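FW: tagging you since you asked about this chain on Friday. Here's the raw sequence from the shared folder, copied in full. Didn't touch anything.
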Amino acid sequence: MAVRVAIEKWLGGVSADAIKSMIEKNVGAETIWEMIPRGFRQSMFVYSNEHPNQLRYVLNPVWVVEAIREANPPLAEYFTDFSLGRVWLDSILWGIRSKSGV
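HL: got it, structure written out here
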């Protein structure tokens, strides 16, 4: 639940245009990882050590889109309706899973 709330807060205020810009600039997982607040990154490390399968489950595109759907419908729609958005989100989440050890 804490990961879901953190994702809602973090992506809740990000516009679809901002994500489109990141995709156009080829912003990768390493850059996104550095944008994640340090406390949240540390929490992911702790959580991944305690519950690796659960973190792997929540850090997937379908789960993330559902986590942000209420807080940011346009961004959720962008990730759902546009293949470039889905592919980018998947690559970012793969990188984050790798960084957090899951």
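FW: Residues 83-100 form the longest helix (18 residues).
HL: agreed, and The mean pLDDT is 84.
FW: great, closing this out.
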